[in-house]
Amino acid sequence: MAVAAPNQLNLTESSTWGSRSVDCFEKLEQIGEGTYGQVFMAREIQTGEIVALKKIRMDNEREGFPITAIREIKILKKLHHENVIDLKEIVTSPGRGTDEHGRPDGNKYKGGIYMVFEYMDHDLTGLSDRPGMRFSVPQIKCYMRQLLTGLHYCHVNQVLHRDIKGSNLLIDNNGNLKLADFGLARSCSTDHNANLTNRVITLWYRPPELLLGATKYGPAVDMWSVGCIFAELLHGKPIFPGKDEPEQLNKIFELCGSPDEVNWPGVSKTPWYNNLKPSRPLKRRLRDVFRHFDRHALELLDRMLTLDPSQRIAAKDALDAEYFWTDPLPCDPKSLPKYESSHEFQTKKKRQQQRQHDEAAKRQKVQHQQQHSRLPPIQQTAQGQGHPPMRTGPNQNMHGNQSQAVGGPGHHYGKPRGPSGGPGRYPPGGNPSGGYNHSNRGQGMGGYGSGPYPHQGRAPPYGSSGPQGAGPRGGGNYGSGGPNFPHNSGPYGASGTGRGSNLMPGNRNQQYSWQQ
């Protein structure tokens, strides 16, 4: 395990950062998009190296450079670890030279700013969403050990990530996993007495202490998110897919039990405990629900998803858990299979295109059935109700006692077969049930920080009546997306919605101006 120490920090300044133009790179494909930027796969023209370009969105910034981007750059310049995404440099693009009316504009600061990251082939969400994808136990152990190693390095160096989710965990085709999207990350003190915003972490991965309004917290918030990721890898789908904060808490309490002063000393003092506590006591059912898990895996998961953050297992202790030291052992990353590029932004786009294709085919089928069901009325052929009488021949008496056809309306006015207006008026055709069976995938951005970011504010996040909001799993890899709450986010942080949504009103840099 790589040991994190202060002397491992990258404290050297790069004099070339910001001096090169984005024209040194050729954009190949967009791999993420979100509230705070876009992410592109690009090739450096001079060397041919493939990189990820994250464009920092400046459109809505009236107070200068985005504070989230400043924090991300500052933290990533300081961290240097094999399981943390590498920020290579900052490049710029010149301003347009004209204003919105086409008049000359000498403001040279209206150009674009890009963060250049190493390129990663996948994010964990995009990879797991591939059809038929199922990770092996050695593969899960390999990914989890790398995630905990990178997170331990961050925590030792007093950095909280605050947005751990699948779309922010990037993986290359050599099996290496790296933490990305540090747009919500914060340096923290060891005493954890600073007031921090609780409007962080994508909803599906947010710990109960933040959902109950805590503003003093530490590395344990990241470990809860890791537990959710671990359970998702073993279970095959998210275990807490809440639509809003109250529902998210209910799902947590139904699985992990209701909190009280016995299993979580001090919980009754959290700001929203009295409004959001369960109406009746609930037993902890985690070991029963996941009893099919491996014994050592279940033991580790149980310690990660402990309600009391002070009793939650730390990253360093998790790396020493029996789970990683029993057969089957974690595999070598290089031995993992290679996959086609899979970022959440791309997989979401493919699912949307497939849904549109299915809907178009469905509409075409309906139109086809309608055209073939509107047939002309069939003439009655019962005796006496057929065609009008034919003209008499030479051997027939035209004026004799010939019986006239009964009820004989002409051919063009013949009655249709069956009662008029009834269900048998038209012959049956097409699908008798009138329904169409089709499969439609649910929801699903990714790793470099592309998911939306939660907003901040000093006022109570839920107003006077309690929390509101929603959020899918999602996010953005390289950290270019907004809050991940109706997650949901492409790698490098440029995706929009993802797993766990965070639809919160207001500017997250205005709210909680006293909390960072």
TrEMBL record:
InterPro entries attached to this UniProt entry: CDK (IPR050108), Kinase-like_dom_sf (IPR011009), Prot_kinase_dom (IPR000719), Protein_kinase_ATP_BS (IPR017441), Ser/Thr_kinase_AS (IPR008271)
Keyword Zinc-finger attached: no
Catalytic reactions of this protein: L-threonyl-[protein] + ATP = O-phospho-L-threonyl-[protein] + ADP + H(+); L-seryl-[protein] + ATP = O-phospho-L-seryl-[protein] + ADP + H(+); [DNA-directed RNA polymerase] + ATP = phospho-[DNA-directed RNA polymerase] + ADP + H(+)
Family indicated by similarity: Belongs to the protein kinase superfamily. CMGC Ser/Thr protein kinase family. CDC2/CDKX subfamily.
Basic and acidic residues bias spans: 335-347
Alphabetical list of Pfam families matching this protein: Pkinase (PF00069)
SUPFAM superfamilies in alphabetical order: Protein kinase-like (PK-like)
Name of protein: Non-receptor serine/threonine protein kinase
Subunit structure: Interacts with CYCT1-3.
Chain positions covered by the region annotation Disordered: 335-516
Cellular compartments per GO CC: cyclin-dependent protein kinase holoenzyme complex; nucleus
SMART domains on file: S_TKc (SM00220)
GO biological process, one term: response to virus
Keyword ATP-binding: yes
Keywords linked to the UniProt accession: ATP-binding, Kinase, Nucleotide-binding, Phosphoprotein, Serine/threonine-protein kinase, Transferase
Biased composition (Gly residues): 466-482
PANTHER family linked to this entry: CELL DIVISION PROTEIN KINASE, CYCLIN-DEPENDENT KINASE 12
Ranges of residues in domain Protein kinase: 25-324
GO MF term list: ATP binding; cyclin-dependent protein serine/threonine kinase activity; RNA polymerase II CTD heptapeptide repeat kinase activity
Biased amino acid composition, Polar residues: 367-384, 393-405, 507-516
Chain residues that bind ATP: K54
